[in-house]
């Protein structure tokens, strides 16, 4: 656990986001410390992916404050988040179908000299990265459209780990993965925590959440609905917080106290 | 990842896989067009022995340039997943502007040429603005452009009717000048072959040094050999007529440069990224609106340049310079050559291949003195075939990816 004195890696407060008639996020707050895994859970449509996109600068918040390692920052574009060291695996993967694995990994941050791509070095680093993650992709020069769903997901995950991110957000990274690959991703999440990165993990699988997360943040209908210490909270409590079965001031209070 | 089941299944999967990749890939995807082109040439040669004569082939090599330039620009727009219906009108507008400035208003040629081309660039910016920033579908914006820029061209031409270009001028020379020294064509062939070989070989050395797998040297040798045969055969044929046409030289240089831009630069990577997934490109931090706008600017600029070559070919500009089949031919050339209508797949070489197919049909039909009606029907059929291949390969890729 991080020392109490260290400011959180990322602290959000008062985040609102509206899409037309849909109020996707209402007064959301969230803190992520370095070396911690926060699981973000909630029912379908609760606003989890929207929160991820807000942090990634893809869909900037309407209002809200963001602090990065104690300093207020503005994340208005994907580049802002990238420069801070925030890497994201989106739920829909956000890969370019026609580009090969190398092209996708380096998309938007290609290695180049005066605008000319350095394909050889990009391919070398891609192979090295895939090797350290023990990811097997038959051919890194193949367009990702021809990869299987699980392989595409592993490409999206490796894309997030390229460079030196400080915070990694994974939006349902194991949704398309088999048992073996899911275990690998969970191992990977633990390795990221050991390396001192902050991890925000979205998952509907509470078993996985219990296995790797330190804290669980619950979103319900676009609002915070509890923040739990995984080791001291039962699965039933989390479930009832997700579904709102015991949604009242008392449980919220208890949850807050757990957080402090 | 491993495929359970017998080796037959695995073999079938691997076959389907390579087939899909070949259909989808760059250079190998052009095999059907090349075969088609050879078939067209064979048929016309059988029907009329003058078809493959040096004179006809040399004329063909100049005739392709105007439309080919338009097709080169269209490829940029197709790659980002858009369409540009205005290229015919823009080419007419640019040549009209040039002709009025130079011939009628007495402006010196170089600035008149530059203004004509820049006029194209500006038009592309307007299209890009309405498409990428305002969000109007490109189909409608460029359809409006097709009418609007044609109208502007008529307006500029208004009082002049047909403008004859100065036949000693720069623009006239674009398609009239031939390097009659036989060395020129052979030098170009040698330069192209050597250039290809050296780049490929340097790539192999760099990849070996970095420890990444390389293409087998045999493949490079084979390709260099094939390129040498084609280049020197073409040089030989051209030299049997008037030598290397300046227009062809310019076209090939522009084609190779744009090919390099698309495949080897970050800008080209952004163009492809947009065609493969706009949302993914946006999330990667790519300025989608700007890249899309730039594609329209490329398209209109190339249309303007193509317009000058077309004007040069007939040595005049008139209100009938803009024909509807010019637009059709430019887009058809890109698609027949193997650039996908679905965005994200294609190369500048498809402009050369596609326009060769189209102009070969036109020239063959003209030689045989058949009605142009037949030419339209043949070209239409070829285009349909190309689009069918494009759609099937697109679907095959998707289906495989989802499996
Ligand atoms: N681009 C958008 N335009 C309009 N509404 C949107 C958009 N993105 C999200 N929403 C709405 O915002 C709400 C939250 O969506 P979000 O994708 O964040 O949910 P989620 O918690 O990730 O759900 P899931 O578990 O299904 O992934 C939903 O009601 C959704 O319809
Ligand atoms: Mg989601």
From TrEMBL, chain A:
UniProt superkingdom: Bacteria
Keyword ATP-binding listed: yes
Record-linked Pfam families: ABC_tran (PF00005)
Entry-linked CDD domains: ABC_Carb_Monos_I
GO molecular function, one term: ATP binding
Residue ranges occupied by any ABC transporter domain in the UniProt entry: 10-246
The UniProt record lists the keyword Nucleotide-binding: yes
InterPro entries for this protein: AAA+_ATPase (IPR003593), ABC_carbohydrate_import_ATPase (IPR050107), ABC_transporter-like_ATP-bd (IPR003439), P-loop_NTPase (IPR027417)
SUPFAM superfamilies per record: P-loop containing nucleoside triphosphate hydrolases
Keywords: ATP-binding, Nucleotide-binding
Protein name: ATP-binding cassette domain-containing protein
Native organism taxonomy: Bacteria, Bacillati, Actinomycetota, Actinomycetes, Kitasatosporales
């Amino acid at each position: 656990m991080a020392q109490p004195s260290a400011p959180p890696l990322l602290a959000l407060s008062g985040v609102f986001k509206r899409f037309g008639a849909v109020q996707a996020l209402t007064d959301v707050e969230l803190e992520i410390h370095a070396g911690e895994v926060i699981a973000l859970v909630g029912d379908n449509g609760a606003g989890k992916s929207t929160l991820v996109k807000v942090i990634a600068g893809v869909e900037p918040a309407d209002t809200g404050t963001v602090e990065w390692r104690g300093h207020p920052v503005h994340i208005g574009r994907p580049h802002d988040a990238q420069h801070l060291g925030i890497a994201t695996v989106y739920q829909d993967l956000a890969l370019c179908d026609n580009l090969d694995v190398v092209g996708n990994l380096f998309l938007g941050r290609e290695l180049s000299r005066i605008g000319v791509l350095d394909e050889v070095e990009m391919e070398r680093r891609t192979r090295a990265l895939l090797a350290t993650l023990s990811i097997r992709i038959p051919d890194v020069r193949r367009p990702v459209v021809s990869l299987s769903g699980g392989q595409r997901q592993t490409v999206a995950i490796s894309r997030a780990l390229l460079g030196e991110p400080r915070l990694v957000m994974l939006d349902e990274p194991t949704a398309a993965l088999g048992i073996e690959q899911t275990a690998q991703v969970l191992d990977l999440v633990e390795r990221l925590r050991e390396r001192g990165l902050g991890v925000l993990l979205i998952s509907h699988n509470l078993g996985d959440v219990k296995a790797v997360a330190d804290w669980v943040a619950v979103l319900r209908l676009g609002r915070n609905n509890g923040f739990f210490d995984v080791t001291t909270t039962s699965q039933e409590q989390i479930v009832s917080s997700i579904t709102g079965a015991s949604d009242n001031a008392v449980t919220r209070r208890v949850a807050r106290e757990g957080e402090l | 990842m491993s495929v359970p089941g017998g080796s037959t299944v695995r073999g079938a999967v691997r076959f389907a896989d390579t087939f899909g990749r070949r259909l989808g890939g760059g250079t190998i995807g052009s095999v059907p067009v090349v075969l088609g082109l050879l078939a067209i040439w064979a048929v016309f040669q059988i029907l009329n022995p003058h078809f493959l004569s040096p004179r006809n082939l040399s004329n063909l090599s100049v005739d392709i340039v105007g439309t080919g330039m338009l097709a080169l620009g269209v490829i940029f727009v197709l790659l980002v997943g858009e369409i540009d219906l205005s290229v015919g009108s823009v080419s007419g507008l640019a040549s009209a502007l040039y002709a009025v400035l130079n011939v009628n208003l007495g402006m010196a040629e170089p600035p008149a040429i530059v203004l004509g081309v820049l006029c194209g660039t500006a038009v592309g910016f307007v299209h890009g603005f309405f498409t990428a920033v305002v969000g109007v579908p490109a189909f409608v914006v460029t359809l409006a452009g097709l009418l609007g820029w044609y109208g502007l061209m008529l307006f500029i031409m208004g009082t002049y009717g047909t403008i004859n270009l100065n036949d000693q001028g720069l623009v006239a020379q674009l398609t009239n000048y031939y390097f009659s020294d036989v060395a020129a064509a052979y030098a170009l062939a040698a330069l192209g072959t050597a250039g290809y070989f050296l780049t490929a070989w340097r790539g192999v050395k760099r990849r070996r040094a970095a420890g990444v797998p390389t293409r087998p040297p045999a493949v490079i040798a084979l390709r260099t050999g094939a390129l040498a045969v084609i280049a020197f055969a073409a040089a030989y044929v051209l030299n049997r007529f008037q030598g290397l046409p300046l227009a062809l030289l310019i076209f090939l240089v522009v084609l190779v440069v744009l090919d390099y831009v698309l495949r080897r630069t970050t800008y080209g990577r952004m163009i492809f990224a947009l065609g493969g997934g706009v949302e993914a490109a946006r999330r990667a931090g790519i300025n989608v609106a700007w890249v899309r706008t730039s594609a329209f600017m490329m398209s209109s600029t190339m249309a303007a340049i193509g317009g000058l070559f077309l004007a040069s070919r007939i040595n005049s500009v008139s209100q009938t310079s803009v024909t509807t089949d010019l637009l059709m031919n430019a887009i058809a050339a890109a698609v027949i050559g193997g650039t996908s209508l679905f965005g994200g797949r294609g190369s500048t070489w498809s402009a050369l291949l596609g326009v060769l197919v189209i102009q070969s049909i036109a020239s063959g039909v003209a030689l045989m003195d058949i009605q142009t009606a037949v030419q339209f029907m043949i070209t239409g059929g070829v285009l349909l075939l190309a689009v069918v291949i494009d759609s099937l390969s697109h679907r095959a890729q998707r289906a495989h990816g989802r499996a």
